[in-house]
Amino acid sequence: MSDNNLMEKLVSLCKRRGFIFPGSEIYGGLANSWDYGPLGVELKNNIKKLWWKKFVQQRDDMVGIDAALMMNPKVWQASGHISNFSDPLIECKKCHTRFRADTFDQKQCPNCKGTEFTAAKEFNLMFKTFMGPAEEEANIVYFRPETAQAMFVDFPQVLETSRQRIPFGIAQIGKAFRNEITPGNFIFRTREFEQMEIEYFIQEKDWQKYFEYWLEEMKTWLSDIGVDSSKLHYVDIPDNERAHYSKRTVDIEFDYPFGQRELYGIAYRTNYDLSQHQNASKQDLEYRDPENGEKFLPHVIEPTFGVDRTFLAVLLSAYTEIEGGRSTTTEAIKESEVVLKLDKKIAPVKIAVLPLSKKDEVSIPARELANKLRKNWYVQYDETGSIGKRYRRQDEIGTPYCVTYDFDSLEDGKVTVRDRDTMLQERVALADLEKYFKERLED
Ligand code: GAP
Predict the structure, then answer these.
(1) Domain at 342-441: CATH code
(2) 2 falls in which pLDDT band (50, 70, 90)?
(3) In b/e form, how buried is each residue of 290-309, taking b as 16+ CB within 10 angstroms?
(4) Which residue lies with its CA nearest to atom 16 of ligand 1?
């Protein structure tokens, strides 16, 4: 399968099965905005829940926050985003279409074939709006372009209320907004997206140790969620390409069908942000070491994870096509079959309950079983079409287990459980079914 084909197939699967569809579609859409549908929101929530569990809940050196999207504009002044968070733009003199100067290498405007362009001008990527009814300069606020700044600005309150000692981290999951000049490639680059970020506060002398430590943690996370490790690259970003706040950055890149691009990043932000905010706010943001009473501005290692890019990398890693099919029934399947080999922990639907007959004597207890399992897991009940078709429907959305309820179930109190990956089928007593899934679906 060519890479172009793969992307097309994935986008089409996402739309057809309700993972992701174009935003505002009945009005012709809104450029590069995407809505997560019923299965998409489950997968995305599972990714976020697992991330929170691994990096916040299961650690005693991490606390979370959920900050406002709009912050005092002085935050962005101090952080350097107002002066530095920009891309160079050139404009076609004929049709006034704008392009990113650093990636535009053509002689002609792709829109009107014009050949004259303006000199490059910096274009700030932050979205602006007005707070309150008066649309005037004094009321301008920005939608945050990264979640990170709230972790710096809230540092003293978190320190005081959580009684953490350095080294410790603050984590946050939330939306960020950037007025990207060239969004595209599905959910890879959008203007509204979600980030999962950690600011890990340390002593300066320890920065290399914690940089390596967090890089390893990121690698483990990627393996936990089933991202194909053969498609990952770790790229040290040279001095002249790093963000203004970073002394070392490693980008974790992924082989997407459209090329090797950034998935995540890890940066050593020094104490740049805290010192900028301390100077601008005139508040004391220093940490006092309880052991020796020494005061200092902590340094920071920042591992950052895009939620939407995680979603994309996970789907691309899981997408499998089986030529000629692999049906477990006698039905002859000529065309290829799609199996999403998603990690069980993040699969949107965990169990499908499939009665082998629509007759009440089978379908009623099957529905009851689905309702019982629903208390713990996201379950689909499906009684339409042949069993082979129903298995294929579930394989295509990555459901790890299908349970078939048949006439024998009425007699022996057992159901057949089919594993998505091995396709092995085993009879399991109804009384043991919850234990069976707890062992397999929960860690
Ligand atoms: N706080 C650091 C920071 O924001 P970044 O590399 O600019 O660093 C972090 O962004 C992550 O957010 C990226 O690694 C990527 O996963 C995601 N991301 C950035 N811009 C994005 C966009 N326009 N669309 C989707 N995800 C994006």
Answers:
(1) 3.40.50.800
(2) low
(3) eeeeeeebbbbbbbbbbbbb
(4) 306
Please give the CATH superfamily to which domain 3-71+143-315 belongs.
Bira Bifunctional Protein; Domain 2 (3.30.930.10)
Q: Which atom of ligand 1 is nearest to the CA of 191?
A: 23
What's CA 273's distance to the chain center, in Å?
25
Q: Residue 245 — very low, low, confident or very high, per pLDDT cuts 50/70/90?
A: confident
Q: In CATH terms, are 3-71+143-315 and 342-441 the same topology?
A: no
What pLDDT was estimated at residue 25?
93
Beta carbons of 74 and 80 less than 8 angstroms apart: no
CA–CA gap between residue 171 and residue 56 (Å, rounded): 7
Q: Which residues line ligand 1 (CB under 6 A)?
A: 146, 148, 178, 180, 189-190, 193, 195, 197, 262-265, 302, 304, 306, 308-309
For ligand 1, atom 22, name the residue with the nearest CA.
Answer: 189
> Which amino acid residue places its CA nearest to atom 19 of ligand 1?
306
**For residue 146, which atom of ligand 1 is closest to its CA?**
4
Domain extents for the chain? 3-71+143-315, 89-117, 342-441
Lowest mean pLDDT among 94-108, 225-239, 393-407: 94-108
Q: Could you tell me the distance, in angstroms and rounded to a whole number, from the CA of residue 306 to the centre of ligand 1?
A: 6
Residues 43-63 have a mean pLDDT of: 98
